[in-house]
Write a structure and sequence with these properties.
Blueprint lengths: L2 H11 L3 H12 L4 H7 L1 H4 L4 H30 L5 H9 L3 H8 L9 H7 L3 H9 L6 H6 L9 H17 L2 H14 L1 E6 L15 E5 L5 H12 L3 E6 L2 H12 L5 H50 L9 E5 L6 E6 L5 E7 L8 H14 L4 E5 L4 H9 L8 E5 L4 H5 L2 H6 L5 H14 L1 H5 L18 H19 L1 E2 L5 H4 L7 H14 L16 H7 L3 E2 L17 H10 L4 H6 L1 H5 L13 H12 L29 E9 L3 E5 L6 E4 L20 E10 L4 E5 L4
Parallel strand pairs: 4-7, 7-8, 9-10, 13-15
Antiparallel strand pairs: 1-2, 1-3, 4-5, 5-6, 11-12, 11-14, 12-13, 14-15
Helix pairs in contact: 1-5, 2-5, 8-11, 9-11, 11-15, 12-14, 12-15, 13-15, 14-15, 15-22
């Protein structure tokens, strides 16, 4: 382990060296982040998943930096230009920008104006002029370099200036000076592209826009960049060019003679043609990276909240995918989410077979012992919710509106075809809606998170970084909830710590061949389930009604002996210890500590014994929307309505108020106090009360407020 890397991570993250070293050792041994955070608290000093992921990310960045250093050293050495001093500089830097600046003069380039001038033998002339000693003899100096390739004095001087311009561009101090100007005073400007006024109307807020780059929020920057990529906007990022050139002249131009004038001309050309565009690209990338990070944070927070939405649980459910002309697709699922039957009803215009539809749903509800109805929130959802609530049932049947974003993606996917090869996409979509109510986590893991509709410019950000972050969130959520080993799909099992696609499929195959798992120990019989994989996954897999009561808890098998000793010392069974709080109060945890087991693990064990197998997500609740409105045309300013938060961004929250269009609560309208982020006030799927501020029928936009309601 590189000691310098270790110290850099310690300093960067402000985490103790012991914790960083131990975490890196565990990661290198193949331990997953959820496993380390949950079962190795004594080793890491109780670091949480975020801290462990930060350590992993910083370590990877430093490894990438080291690989780049090795590549650069090899390149310069092959050129025969690697000195001991240069090697030392490269090896001692841990900043990627500084490293690339050091390498820039040695970087292999395509033919440039400067390289062509050097081929004509003009480099000595450029060096003489750059020294600015012979300030009044420039033409005389240039005369000596005339040739067939350099026919005139002006050609010679132009070539020399090209060489000087490139030299200034490659000068580290010059680049840092320009960077400083960009960092301090860069402005982002956007203009509408010629002839794109009508076609690019959705970007009209940016047709003549200007803002300090460092103050431009991530959502605005990403919107401008999208407009540029689509060809509707022209974008420039620059500081005060005149002041920046003046600062460069103070550094490179000495005196007022002819040589100095040539250097000044070269500098101005180099800044405009090379230096400014290069640093602008750098700051475009830096600002994009920062915006990406902020957008990814928003997306991951939303995704976590969505995945951890309260489930209805194992109930019999009707799933309804609403529609007008094509009708409402109806599916019936049993307690395990298996499809029992499907049909189509037409309660709405143009068919309006309402009575027939009413009899169909009421008959299904009675004969199939239905507990709930899940209605997708797409087209005709409002009308379908009203239809369902008008029905008569012998037993209580709750009606839920379910966010169906991404259901169409799932229904056309290979996963859906594999699950329901004999049904079309409409049936699969309705099944997905019903299952989302029963267990959002189990169903949503089957869909690309970018298609779930809870992000902010998710298709514009760095896709590998987004995928890595989202995968970590899904893995974290799956493992924090715990998975029923005997009912989980292979897609859900894939995200369990230590498994992956192959072992997940092997578990499903083993269940099919041998029936339900009776114990966690039985996992060792699954093909390719080695000791390491078992260690990583066992604590996150639950077996209901298992012979060993701890098999349905988050207590890891490696700690069973501790609970067994507690029970023995109290002269009771493990089941007694779980059921009797008074018995647990008699346990002196310090008596069970050892070199490897400390109070953090023991406290976790006691918490789990108090609530064995409890789902931390709570339970689903139905929300009723106002009966006064069914479309945006029914809204009036000042109306106070119930709603559900269905997306949280940096600039506000979108709220479903029971119509097709979600309303926006801008961050300034979220609280009667200053807040830095909407997430301070609301979370995904939260029920809120809002007031209608304004309605834009043309653009189908609704502005809402949460203040004073």
């Amino acid at each position: 382990m590189n000691p310098k890397f270790l110290q850099l991570i310690v300093t960067q993250l402000n985490i103790s060296e012991k914790s960083v070293r131990s975490t890196l050792n565990l990661l290198e041994e193949g331990a997953t982040i959820p496993f380390i955070a949950r079962y190795r608290k004594e080793v890491t000093g109780s670091l949480d998943e975020v801290q462990i992921a930060d350590i992993q990310r910083e370590w990877k960045k430093l490894q990438d930096l080291q690989k780049r250093k090795e590549s650069i050293l090899q390149s310069i050495e092959e050129q025969g230009k690697l000195t001991d001093e240069l090697r030392s500089r490269i090896e001692s830097t841990f900043n990627m920008t500084e490293l690339e600046d050091i390498y820039l003069p040695y970087k292999r380039k395509r033919a440039t104006r400067a390289s062509k001038a050097k081929e004509k033998g003009l480099e000595p002339l450029a060096k003489q002029i750059f020294k600015q000693y012979d300030n009044d003899q420039v033409e005389k100096l240039a005369q000596a370099y005339l040739s067939d390739e350099v026919p005139s004095i002006e050609d010679a001087l132009q070539g020399a200036r090209d060489i000087i311009a490139e030299q200034i561009n490659e000068d580290e101090k010059a680049r840092n000076l320009v960077r400083q100007a960009f960092r301090r005073e860069a402005t982002i400007r956007s203009k509408v592209a010629r002839g794109k006024d009508q076609e690019g109307a959705k970007y009209r807020d940016y047709f003549d826009f200007e803002e300090s780059l460092k103050k431009c929020p991530s959502h605005r920057l990403l919107a401008i960049r999208r407009g540029e990529e689509e060809g509707f906007l022209r974008v420039l990022i620059s500081p005060d060019d005149e002041n920046t050139v003046y600062r460069l002249e103070q550094k490179f131009v000495r005196g007022y003679g002819e040589s100095s004038e040539q250097v000044k001309m070269a500098l101005e050309d180099g800044y405009k043609r090379l230096l400014a565009p290069s640093i602008e690209t750098e700051f475009r990338n830096l600002s994009k990276d920062k915006a990406d990070e902020e957008a990814i944070v928003v997306f991951t927070q939303n995704l976590r909240q969505l995945l951890l939405s309260p489930p209805l649980g194992q109930k019999r459910v009707i799933g309804l995918d609403p529609g007008f002309r094509t009708g409402c697709k109806v599916v019936v699922l049993d307690e395990s989410g298996n499809l029992l039957q499907n049909t189509t009803i037409f309660p709405h215009p143009p068919q309006s077979r309402t009575l027939e539809a009413k009899k169909t749903i009421e008959h299904i509800a009675i004969t199939m012992n239905i507990d709930a109805i899940a209605v997708g929130n797409g087209t005709a959802s409002r009308e379908t919710m009203a239809f369902c609530r008008s029905l008569s049932f012998h037993n209580p049947v709750e009606v839920f509106l379910v966010n169906e974003s991404g259901a169409s993606i799932y229904s056309a996917s290979d996963i859906a075809r594999e699950e329901f090869p004999d049904h079309d996409v409409t049936v699969r979509g309705a099944v997905s809606i019903a299952r989302r109510l029963m267990d959002p986590l189990a169903e949503l893991v089957k869909i690309d998170p970018k298609s779930i509709g809870v992000g902010q410019y998710q298709h514009d950000v760095n896709q590998p970084k987004l995928k890595e972050s989202l995968d970590q969130v899904v893995e974290s959520c799956v493992n924090s909830v715990g998975i029923n080993l005997n009912t989980a799909s292979k897609h859900l099992l894939t995200y369990v710590s230590g498994l992956g696609p192959t072992l997940a499929q092997n578990i499903v195959n083993y269940r099919a061949d041998n029936g339900s798992f009776k114990s966690r120990k039985e996992l060792s019989k699954v093909p390719r389930m080695g000791a390491k994989a078992f260690e990583q996954c066992a604590g996150f897999l639950r077996i209901r009604d298992a012979k060993h009561p701890l098999d349905n808890t988050a207590v890891h098998p490696e700690s069973y002996h501790i609970v067994e000793k507690m029970a023995k010392d109290l002269n009771c069974s493990i089941s007694d210890l779980i059921q009797d709080a008074n018995l647990r109060k008699q346990v002196n945890l310090r008596a069970y500590t050892s070199d490897t087991i400390g109070l953090p693990t023991l406290n976790d064990i006691m918490k789990e014994l108090a609530k064995p197998g409890l789902d931390p997500r709570g339970s689903a609740k139905a929300v009723e929307f106002s009966k006064e409105i069914s479309s945006i045309e029914d809204l009036k300013e000042g109306m106070v309505l119930n709603g559900i938060v269905n997306n949280v961004t940096n600039f506000g929250a979108f709220v479903d108020i029971g119509i097709k269009e979600s309303g926006l609560v801008h961050i300034s309208q979220m609280a009667n106090r200053f807040i830095k982020s909407p997430s301070e006030v609301v979370s995904l799927n939260q029920e809120v009360t809002v007031r209608v501020m304004s309605i834009d029928l043309q653009r189908k936009r609704v502005q809402l407020s949460m203040k004073d309601v």
